[in-house]
Amino acid sequence: MKKFIFSVLTILTISMTTMSQQVDNPLFKPFTGTPHGTAPFSQLNDSMWMPAIDRGIMLAQQEIDAITSQRSRPDFENTIVALEHVGEDLNRVLNVFYPLMSANSSDAMMDIAVEASRKLSDYSTSLTLNQELWKRVKAVYDDRKLFNLTPEDEMLLQKTYDSFALSGANLQGDDREKYRALSAELSAATTAFGQNVLKEMNTYEIYLSKDDLAGLPESSVAAAAEAAEAKGRKGEYLFTLDQPVYSAFLKYSSRPDLREKMYRLYNGRNTSGQYSNLDNITRISQLRLEIAKLLGSKTYADHGLKRTMAENPAAVYDLLGKLRDAYRPALDAELAELTQFASKLEGKPVVINPWDYSYYSNKLKAEKYAFDEEALRPYFELDNVVKGVFGLATKLYGITFEPNDKIEVYHPDVKAYDVKDTDGSYLGVLYTDFFPRSTKRPGAWMTNFKEQYVAEDGTNSRPHVSIVMNFTKPTADKPSLLTPYEVETFLHEFGHSLHGLLANSKYASLSGTNVYRDFVELPSQFNENYLTEREFLDSFARHYQTGEAIPDELVNRLVRSQQYGAAYQCMRQLGFGYLDMAWHTITEPVTDPVAFESKAIETVRVFDDVDGTMISPQFSHIFAGGYAAGYYSYKWAEVLDADAFAFFKEKGIFNKEAANSFRKNVLSRGGTEHPAELYRKFRGQDPTIDALLERDGIRKHDTTVAPLNKD
User: Fold this and answer.
1) Cβ–Cβ < 8 Å for 365, 273
2) Structure pTM?
3) pLDDT tens for each residue of 493-504
C-alpha cells in the first residue's frame, strides 16, 4: 500500500457526465510532455483536485475488486504485488496535492483537504477492512515459505500483512464500523489541527518603532523595515513569528519586555480563540487511544511502536531516561554559569526566564569563544551554500546537480535540478524552496512529488524530491545570508533528499524514506556533522562581498562552540519526546491538557511554566505530522548519526569506502531490510550512545554503554 493510503474506504461512484466534463484535467493521467514526467503546475487549478481524488479512489476500488474477484489461488504476485500497484492514479494526485498544501497553500486547498481527508479516511479504512482482500493477504503470508521470495519481497509481504493486522483487519461485527468511524474522525481532527497552526501563524504582525530595535542585528532591522514598507507602513518595522524572525529577535534584542512579548505570542499560539487546538489535542489523543484498544493494545504507543526499531514504550523510555540522567548534571552546570554571567553583565541578580535564555546564552557564547553567528552570516551566502551542500554529495557519492529551467515550478522562489549519477545517468529531480511566505507552513521538511520504484516493464522510475525551508530572505541591499543554524537545517533536509534520490528499490512503498520512523532521521542528522568540518567549509564558505575564505579563527570558534549548550538542547528535545509519549501512553481521556503537559515534562523541565503558553497546541509533528509516539526518534537517530559519523572520522570524512558503504547499505536500500541489519552492514556493529556523549562533551572516551539495539 502506498504512502497516502493511510486510513481507509467507501466505494465511490462517479457519473459518466462528471467524467466527461473533466477530460481536460491533467491530473487524470500520467504527466507526459514535461521533463521526466514532472508535475505541470501551471496547468493545475483548485477545481481539479476533488474530481481527480474522487476518480483515483474509484479506480483504486476497481483494482481492489479485480484482486478479490479472481479465482486464482492467492500468491505473492497476484495479491501482494498487485496490491502494491493499487491506487497509482490516486497517489499521483496526492503526491502533488499534499506537498503543495504544505508549501503553497490557499484557503480553497484547505477546504479541499477537509473534504478529501474524510473520503480518503473512509477509503483507507474500507481497504483494510475488506475481508476478502484480507483473506488473500493472510493466505499468502501463511504460505510464505512456499514462495521463492527475495529479502525485499519478504519485507513487502511483512509490511503489507502488518498494515492490515495493525489497522483492524481482524475486527469483526460492530467493531469494524466503530474503527471506521474513529478513523474518519481522527483524520478530520488532525487536518483541523494543522490548519489552525497555519492560520493563526499568519495573523501575527508586530509593528515596532526605531526605539524598540536595540540589540537587533542590521539584517533583522533591514528585513523588518522592508516588510513594513511592503504593507504600506514605511518608517515602522514589521516582525512576524516566522522561525528565523522569532529566533533572531530572542537571541539579539536587549529589550527583555519585548523578548517576553514575542515569547508569549509564539508559545501561546493555538491555546485560545478561533484557532485554539486544545479540544483537538485532547480529542486526537482520545481517538488514538480508542483505536489502539480496539486493536488489542493498552495504549497508542504500544500499538504505534510495533513497526519501529524501539518496538515498545519501555525501550523509548529507557533511551530518554539514560539521556536525561547523563545530561542533567551538565544542564545544571550550564544554567548556573549562565545565571552568574547574566548577573555580572547586568550588575544585579538575574533570574533566567525562558525568553532570556537565547539572549544571555548568545552573549556568554560570544565571550567564551568569541563566537557570533552574525559574524559568520557574510560567509554563508545562500547561492554559495547551495553549491557547497550539493558539492558534499558530489564528493561523497559522485552525484551532480544541474539546474533545469524547463521543469515547471509551483512558485517563483522554487528551483528545479536534474540529479545525475557518477556515470551521468539520470537519478531524479530535486526542487528547492527556501523562503517564508504566508502560503507556507513554518519549519523545514523534505517530501516527494514522486517515489522511486521499478516498473513492471523493468524501468527504474526515478523520484522527484522537494526540500522546503524558511530561511532569512534577501533584502534590497543584501542576498540571503544564512546563520550556521540555517546551514545545518539545509544539510539536514538535504540528507533526507539523498535518501530519496539515491533510492534503488523494487517497490515504491519500501523506497527512499519509507523506513521505520526511528531510522528515517539517520541520513539527515548524519549530514549535519559536516557543518563544523574545515575541509567541507573550505569548499564554499566565502565572504559575499570580498570573496575571502572563511578565516581559520572563525571556523575554530564555531567548532569550539558546538558543545556549548548541548545539555540544554538535549533536555529540550527530551521534553518533546516525553510529552509525545505522555499523550500516547494515556489509558484514560485527558481532561486538563494544561496540567497534563506540565506533568509530562516535569523531569526534564528547564524553566518554570509560563501561564498562557504550551507546546502541545502547536506540536504539529505529533498531532498532524505522522510522529505520534515517534518524536523520540530524533534522539534515537542522533545516537545512530553520531555513531555513524565516528566511523567516518576514523576512516576520513570523505573516505570513499565509508561513503560507498553508507550509500549501498543505508541511502539506497530504503525499507527493504530491517534497519538494524542495514546499519550493521554499513557499520559492522551495533550502535552505542558513546559517540553522542563524546560529541556533546558529556562523557570522555573512557567508558562504554550497552548497544542501542541488539536485534
Assistant:
1) no
2) 0.82
3) 999 999 999 999
- Judged by DSSP in three states, 178 sits in helix
What H or E segment, with its residue span, contains residue 363? helix 357-369
For 289, the 3-state DSSP assignment is helix
What pLDDT digit, counting tens, does each position of 624-640 carry?
988 999 999 999 999 99
Q: Which residues of 342-359 are buried (b: 16+ CB within 10 A; e: fewer)?
A: beeeeeeebebbbbbbbb
Amino acid identity, residue 446? M
What whole-number distance in Å separates Cα of residue 132 and Cα of residue 148? 24
Edge-to-edge strand ranges of the sheet holding 445-450: 400-403, 415-420, 426-433, 464-468, 445-450
Question: What's the average model confidence in pLDDT over 14-39?
Answer: 76
By DSSP bridging, strand 426-433 and strand 464-468 are: parallel
From the list 84, 200, 493, 528, the catalytic residue is: 493
**Rounded Cα gap, residues 447 and 464, in angstroms:** 9
pLDDT tens, residue by residue, 415-446: 999 999 999 999 999 999 999 998 998 889 99
Q: What are phi and psi of 667, to 5 degrees?
A: -65, -35
DSSP category for residue 46: G
Q: Quick one: three-class SS letters along 432-474?
A: EECCCCCCCCCCCEEEEEECCEECCCCCEECCEEEEECCCCCC
In angstroms, what is the C-alpha Rg of the chain?
25
> How many CB atoms sit inside 10 A of residue 704's CB?
10
pLDDT at res. 59: 97
Is residue 435 within 8 Å of residue 468, measured between CB atoms?
no
Cell numbers standing for residue 33 = 510532455
d(CA 97, CA 102): 9
CA dist 619 and 404 (Å) reads 36
Residue 642 has pLDDT above 90, yes or no: yes
Which 3-state string (H, E, C) describes 528-577? HHHHHCHHHHCCCCECCCCCCECCHHHHHHHHHHCCCCHHHHHHHHHHHH
Catalytic annotation present for 493: yes
Angle value at C-alpha 594, between 243 and 299, nearest 5 degrees:
95
Task: Read off φ and ψ for residue 338, nearest 5 degrees.
Answer: -65, -40
Are 419 and 401 in contact, with CB atoms under 8 Å apart?
yes
Q: Is the dihedral angle over the CA atoms 411, 414, 415, 420 positive or is it negative?
A: negative
Q: Are 327 and 571 in contact (CB under 8 A)?
A: yes
**Nearest alpha carbon to residue 372 among 606, 564, 573:** 564
What's the rounded Cα separation, in Å, for the pair 522 and 492? 10
Give me the DSSP letters along 219-288.
Answer: HHHHHHHHHHHHTT-TTSEEE---HHHHHHHHHH---HHHHHHHHHHHHTTTSSSTT--HHHHHHHHHHH
Whole-angstrom distance, CA of residue 261 vs CA of residue 610: 12
Q: Which of 487, 499, 472, 497 lies closest to 532 in space, CA to CA?
A: 487
Asked if 520 and 640 touch (Cβ cutoff 8 Å), the reply is no
Confidence at residue 22, expressed as pLDDT on a 0 to 100 scale? 53
pLDDT for residue 135 is more than 80: yes
- Which of 190, 57, 56 is CA-nearest to residue 127? 57
3-class DSSP assignment, residue 685:
coil
